[in-house]
Structure formats: structure tokens, C-alpha cells
Amino acid sequence: MKEKIVALRDALKGAGQVTVLTGAGISAESGVPTFRGDEGIWQNYRATDLATPEAFDRDPELVWRFYNWRRELISHVTYNPAHKALVELEGLVPGFTLITQNVDGLHLLAGSHNLLEIHGNLWKVRCTKCQMIALDRSPDLGPSPKCKSCGGLLRPHVVWFGEALDPAILKKAIEASRRSHVMLAIGTSSVVQPAASLALEAKSSGAVVAEINLESTPHSYLMDFSLLGKAGVIVPQLVGGWK
Ligand code: OAD
């Protein structure tokens, strides 16, 4: 493991452009549940009941209960050493893009700047009528929150299954992946598209690709480095000791 960390750190040191893709695993050590695996959210709840446009049309109150529960949960947690190490990495390399599938806002809280939240943000709401997007940090918005400007029903400003990502954000994510010299995929199961294909984009464009995860993923085969362990331990080791 030590040799792999040293070799990957050397690759990062020589890289002009670094892109990082993160998933729920990076926030696990902050106390935010992941989606898959034994303790994952989708083990106890069905995504089709809670995280699709059809579910919201059918029963918005149920969907809002789920999102209020998640808002309440993340209102009590904070970033961990892995989030913080990525802030440090952004300051160390010439070009840096952080792409996250997480909606918990912890990268922003930690201080990352060049950040693409491709699945949205739990603290943002969007009006289903006038499409206005607003930031609201109240942990519980109630079962049927309404838009302050037009009175329409609000929904979480997150991407649900069956919905397209914002094309402008996706374009930036693909471009960053293609121009990267090193790409890190941290704490993602690499099964949800299009995020999962970004490492493939980077690899096909000649980047060194690496994953940091508790276990192997369907993308382990394409990785130049697969570092198995906790993100909160490995990412700070990668970024520390540059001098
Ligand atoms: P998943 O829950 O699918 O995967 C989390 C990954 O993190 C797994 O591969 C774990 O092995 C790994 N992991 C857990 N704890 C870790 C730790 N401490 N250090 C390193 N790795 C760890 O989460 P995502 O890949 O983010 O989408 O899921 C992708 C998308 O599916 C989410 O954005 C969400 C979900 O359904 C939507 O809601 C649209």
C-alpha cells in the first residue's frame, strides 16, 4: 500500500490537470449513510418510491419526508479528513476539478472551490411551477413546502433516477475528465451513469486513473491504482508529505 501511495502521489505531483470524482463513500466517515451495501439507504428503502419524478408526482409528502430526514441528518455532520485533503490538493496542483455525486454539501463546507455537484444539493429547493432555485438550510421544510415567489410546490434540487443531469454541468465534468492527467475516483460504487463513465473518459484520453474505495468496484479493471481502504485515511496520506 505504501508503495502505491508514493507512486500515485508522484503521478499527482507531475500532473497539470487533476480531476476527482467522489461518491457517498467519502462522506461515510462523516456519518452520512451510503446508498448501496449492507448499511446503504437503498437496502431499506426503494429508490423508485423516493427518488424518481414519478414517486414525487404520486406522493410528494412521502418524498419530502425522506428528504427532510436526510436534511436533518446532514445538519448534524461535518466534513472529514478526506474532504479537507481534497481542499489541500486543489491548492497544490495547477488545474483541479472536483466532481461529486454527493448532495450533502460537505465539499463546499470543507472549502473546495472548483466543484461540480452533478446530482444537485440537498440544501437547495426548486419550484415545480416557476423553476426558481433557492437555498434553504432549515433541516425540516415540512411535508409540502411552497415557493416564496409563486406559491408552487417546491421539490429538492437534486437529480432523481430517470432524470437527466444539467447538460452544462455534465459537459464541464466530461471536459475536465478528458483533459485530466490524473483522475481519482473516491468512495463511489461506479454503477450510476453517467458519473461512472467519467473515469473511462479520463482513461481513454490517456490519464492515470486511480480509485480509493473500501472494496473493488466494476471499474477496478481499468484502474492504474486501486487503493483499498478508508478515504479518510488514504486521501490525507496521498496529499500529505508533498514537500
Ligand atoms: P454508493 O452507495 O453506491 O457507493 C459508495 C461506495 O463507497 C461503495 O463502493 C463503498 O465500498 C465505498 N465506501 C464506503 N465507505 C467508504 C470509506 N470510508 N472510504 C472509501 N470508500 C467507501 O454511492 P455512490 O457511488 O455515490 O444518486 O452512488 C451513486 C449515486 O447512486 C448517488 O449519487 C445516488 C445513488 O442512488 C442519486 O440519488 C441520483
Explain what the structure shows.
- There is one protein chain.
- By secondary structure, the chain is α/β, with parallel strands linked by helices.
- It has two domains: 2-32 and 79-119 and 165-239, TPP-binding domain (Rossmann fold), CATH 3.40.50; 37-76 and 128-158, SIR2/SIRT2 'Small Domain' (2-Layer Sandwich), CATH 3.30.1600.
- The protein is built from eleven helices and nine strands.
- It has helices at 2-13, 25-28, 41-44, 47-50, 53-58, 60-74, 81-92, 106-110, 167-179, 198-204, 231-239; strands at residues 17-22, 95-100, 115-117, 120-127, 133-135, 154-158, 182-186, 208-213, 225-228.
- The strands form two sheets. Strands 3-2-1-7-8-9 form a six-stranded parallel β-sheet, with helices on both faces.
- It starts with a helix and ends with a helix.
- Bound molecules: 2'-O-acetyl adenosine-5-diphosphoribose (OAD).
- The site of 2'-O-acetyl adenosine-5-diphosphoribose has 27 residues, from helix 2 and strand 8.
- 2'-O-acetyl adenosine-5-diphosphoribose binds next to helix 2 and strand 8.
